[in-house]
Write a sequence for this structure.
């Protein structure tokens, strides 16, 4: 069981790694060669250029200005300097509101931490229950547990202090949540009223269009809306099943990347590269790599042309769904928020996601199969959660040194070395749990795609919800139960059944030490690693060396990423859960999550300003989920406190805590009724105001031409680009034939690329690269 010394060593190691990552980032970001890795957002906006060449060849790669290294920490004030309104214009409302979750954590937990340390820590510390064996002589504990509620004697009147603090913490949390909900709702309405015109403001997604033998889907949609929305209907775009075409286009793009790689390899070595035609190039017939890739591109080009022709002409590719656009926002709001026919299962309407948020693959899924898919996904998630109990239980076994020594005595000489013991107890459990959770978000996104959701934002929100449930069950509950079982196994075996509940009540608060180690690994070192961007750094330079030929290729190689909401938000919610649960019972936990919220706010603000390029904009529609999950955590902390008090001989406190639970639930229902409608419905008053203002400013706006092609499938939007790409491919093939002929004559061909590799790299950075805009 971790002691103060173990926690101190773990904190020292994690601080060391975090500082190392931050310093490495601060230095690497100054180098011209890395400019596109650490400032891709500004390149995509077109307001930042490659650092100009100055001086010698070395300055293309290394910043030789010693003054910039003195100010290498300027990225921190730069990240905090941009006002919130400017941040919304720069990165969108989603990004700005996401940052407010970190600020909300600070608003809630800073006062709670001060009160806990001022009142609860002295109340807990000034007892000797654990030292005197108050619960059981066999109970395992450490000196750090003396700061928890476990050190308060059985049936002591001091528990009144914890009850009063529970009320104080609940009222403060609810007050902060209410203010934040009102603020975000106001920001959303203002954003919707003031933002520029977008197609999704005028467009509705219509599903389950009834079949008609006399009309096609397109004709049926047009006829229905001309009859039922004669004054507001503008145009429509039927949904086409182009999934196979999209896969072929993606395969061709991948093949072109391989062709670029082999071409650059040939230019450097002047020898024909070879590859195998089997799986991943590891088996099969050995052939000329360039000729093979050219043949594959030719084959895919023909297949794409045939598939594109089939999709446009085959009625089976037309799905019973359409994007219907209206002349006004008011008309779209009425259609999206009302029932269209007497049969509630036909002509289903909902707001269309913005074009870049649409998940096109799932538009081809028949509506009738969605219920079955949802059932299958729910069962799959249940078994995923159930089977993940095994690795989480294994992690808890690592956190108990005493148990390991009893069951594996041969490890005792190694484990008893003080430093190794501290590392095993203070660092290893958190790292092991972090490793087991790495693949989970990817699995949850795959499951969500099978469910048939129609937008990327919906996929991420449902994945975030399941990740939260998973964290609650496995990371919290199973960790507490399994950890308590491992640590107190001897006590369970030696005590009577009547004493087991008392031992559990004492032992559960002690599990805070495990979560402290997890917060340090995930919340300190993990966040510092996020700004370091080691993986994007390596991938960018590999792509820049082997694949980049044009500026567009270089933009794609930057890979700015985005806020992975399905990963980041559940992690935040776990910290809210742990903070609210342990605020009353183990206050020593709170400073560790405060460090996380401060560090994460600064890091992610920098990333949002300089790095991330959001995939979509939902106008903060995720906030009701954030609010609800914090409420769930608060209610669970109160229920856990009820159970804990019953094991401490104070069942008379139960009515007071039940009243607290009821008040919290009432508060949640109040906020849900008062503020949530702003996130799920668009007020007709706001729509009419925006339409009236737009007509006054742009009376001659041609809305039909603006909306006509907004929701065409991306493979058809990029059709012209594909044709241009085919022309480029022909030129490449011609140049390769010439180069091959010269190579066979042993005459080196002049390289069309500078230095025989990739185009010239960035040359130098400005004196203050961190603040260049």
């Amino acid at each position: 069981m971790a002691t103060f010394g173990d926690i101190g060593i773990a904190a020292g190691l994690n601080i060391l790694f975090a500082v190392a990552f931050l310093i490495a980032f601060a230095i690497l970001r100054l180098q011209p060669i890395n400019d596109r890795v650490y400032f891709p957002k500004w390149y995509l906006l077109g307001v930042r250029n490659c650092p100009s060449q100055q001086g010698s060849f070395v300055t293309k790669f290394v910043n030789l200005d010693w003054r910039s290294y003195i100010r290498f920490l300027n990225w921190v004030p730069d990240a905090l300097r941009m006002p919130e309104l400017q941040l919304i214009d720069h990165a969108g409302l989603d990004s700005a509101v996401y940052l407010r979750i970190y600020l909300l954590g600070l608003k809630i937990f800073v006062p709670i931490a001060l009160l806990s340390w001022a009142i609860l820590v002295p109340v807990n510390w000034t007892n000797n229950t654990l030292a005197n064996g108050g619960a059981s002589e066999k109970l395992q504990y450490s000196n750090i547990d003396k700061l928890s509620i476990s050190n308060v004697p059985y049936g002591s009147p001091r528990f009144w202090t914890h009850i009063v603090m529970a009320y104080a913490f609940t009222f403060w949390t609810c007050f902060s949540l209410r203010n934040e909900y009102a603020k975000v709702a106001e920001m959303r309405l203002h954003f919707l009223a003031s933002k520029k015109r977008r197609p999704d403001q005028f467009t509705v997604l219509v599903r389950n269009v009834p079949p008609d033998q006399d009309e096609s889907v397109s004709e049926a949609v047009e006829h229905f809306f001309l009859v039922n929305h004669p004054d507001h209907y503008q145009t429509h775009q039927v949904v086409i099943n182009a999934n196979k075409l999209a896969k072929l286009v993606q395969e061709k793009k991948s093949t072109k990347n391989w062709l670029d790689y082999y071409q650059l390899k040939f230019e450097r070595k002047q020898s024909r590269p070879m590859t195998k035609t089997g799986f991943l190039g590891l088996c099969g017939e050995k052939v000329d790599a360039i000729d093979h890739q050219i043949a594959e591109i030719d084959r895919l080009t023909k297949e794409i042309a045939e598939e594109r022709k089939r999709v446009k002409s085959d009625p089976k590719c037309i799905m019973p769904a359409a994007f219907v656009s209206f002349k006004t926002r008011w008309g779209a709001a009425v259609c999206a928020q009302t029932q269209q026919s007497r049969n509630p299962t036909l002509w289903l309407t909902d707001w269309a996601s913005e074009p870049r948020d649409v998940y096109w693959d799932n538009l081809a899924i028949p509506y009738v199969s969605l219920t079955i898919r949802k059932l299958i996904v729910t069962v799959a998630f249940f078994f995923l959660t159930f089977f993940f109990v095994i690795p989480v239980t294994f992690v808890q076994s690592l956190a108990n040194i005493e148990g390991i020594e009893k069951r594996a005595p041969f490890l005792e000489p190694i484990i008893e070395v003080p430093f190794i013991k501290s590392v095993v107890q203070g660092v290893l459990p958190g790292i092991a749990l972090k490793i087991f959770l790495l693949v989970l978000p990817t699995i949850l996104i795959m499951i969500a795609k099978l469910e048939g959701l129609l937008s990327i934002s919906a996929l991420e929100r449902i994945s975030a919800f399941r990740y939260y449930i998973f964290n609650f069950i496995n990371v919290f509950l199973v960790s507490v139960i399994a950890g308590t079982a491992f640590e107190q196994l001897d006590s369970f075996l030696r005590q009577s059944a009547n004493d087991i509940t008392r031992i559990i009540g004492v032992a559960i608060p002690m599990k805070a030490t495990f979560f402290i180690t997890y917060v340090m690994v995930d919340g300190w070192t993990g966040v510092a690693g996020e700004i370091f961007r080691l993986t994007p750094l390596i991938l960018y330079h590999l792509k820049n060396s082997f694949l980049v030929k044009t500026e567009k290729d270089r933009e794609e190689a930057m890979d700015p990423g985005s806020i992975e909401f399905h990963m980041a938000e559940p992690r935040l919610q776990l910290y809210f859960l742990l903070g609210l649960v342990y605020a009353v019972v183990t206050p020593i936990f709170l400073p560790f999550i405060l460090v996380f919220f401060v560090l994460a706010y600064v890091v992610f603000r920098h990333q949002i300003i300089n790095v991330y390029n959001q995939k979509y904009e939902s106008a903060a529609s995720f906030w009701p989920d954030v609010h609800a999950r914090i409420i769930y955590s608060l209610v669970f902390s109160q229920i856990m406190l009820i159970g804990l008090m019953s094991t401490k001989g104070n069942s008379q406190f139960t009515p007071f805590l039940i009243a607290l639970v009821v008040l919290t639930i009432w508060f949640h229902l109040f906020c849900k009724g008062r503020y949530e409608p702003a996130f799920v419905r668009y007020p007709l008053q706001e729509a009419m105001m925006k339409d009236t203002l737009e007509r006054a400013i742009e009376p001659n706006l041609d809305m039909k031409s603006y909306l006509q092609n907004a929701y065409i499938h991306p493979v058809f939007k990029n059709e012209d680009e594909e044709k241009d790409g085919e022309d480029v491919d022909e030129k490449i093939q011609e140049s390769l034939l010439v180069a091959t002929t010269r190579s066979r004559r042993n005459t080196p061909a002049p390289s069309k690329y500078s230095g025989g590799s990739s185009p010239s790299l960035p040359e130098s950075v400005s004196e203050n690269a961190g603040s260049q805009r």
The first helix runs from residue 4 to 28. Residues 134-138, 735-773 have pLDDT under 50 and may be disordered. Residues 88 and 595 are 26 Å apart (CA to CA). The radius of gyration is 30 Å.
